[in-house]
Description:
- The chain contains two helices and eight strands.
- The chain is α+β, with helices and mostly antiparallel strands.
- It folds into two domains: 92 residues, Nuclear Transport Factor 2, Chain: A; 60 residues, Roll (Nuclear Transport Factor 2, Chain: A).
- The strands form two sheets. Strands 1-2-3-4 form a four-stranded antiparallel sheet. The chain has a four-stranded antiparallel sheet with strand order 5-6-7-8, with helices on one face.
- The chain is flat and about 70 Å long.
Amino acid sequence: MKYWLLIPLGAAAGASVFLLFLYNSAVSPLEERESAGRAAASSVEDIMEIYDVSFFHGEASYQVVDAVREDGEDIYVLVPENSEAEPEVLLHSSGVSPEEVLDTASADEDMQTVHAVRLGMLEGSPIYEINYTDSYGRLGYYYVSFEDGEYIKSYQLGAS
Length: 160
């Protein structure tokens, strides 16, 4: 009589195993790309410590490695997914900070919620991409130059 309890428990266990497999197959390529980004950054610069690795997907995809060199200088290394292209090294001090960019962009645009500020490349130039939602529920993207914080372009997608 109590065997009927085994059917839902078995189904729940099977669903859990499937979801775990699905999660692992989704995360595994990201971990591999992060490891490749770390290795590429270390091969270009004498890196003492890596603070963070993030991703930028624009015209081309990049792993953005935030690190400090052996000489103590904070750097970003933008490692393109296209293995034929060379990584781009940027000194933190050669551009505006993400905080400055966000302050300026918030004054210019209706940014209800900021989701991310990402460093990346657009048409061969380093940029910041600010991803946000405005007060009308529209998803927006705001692009500024890394070097001087100058506005490049912005657009919003319709409310969902």
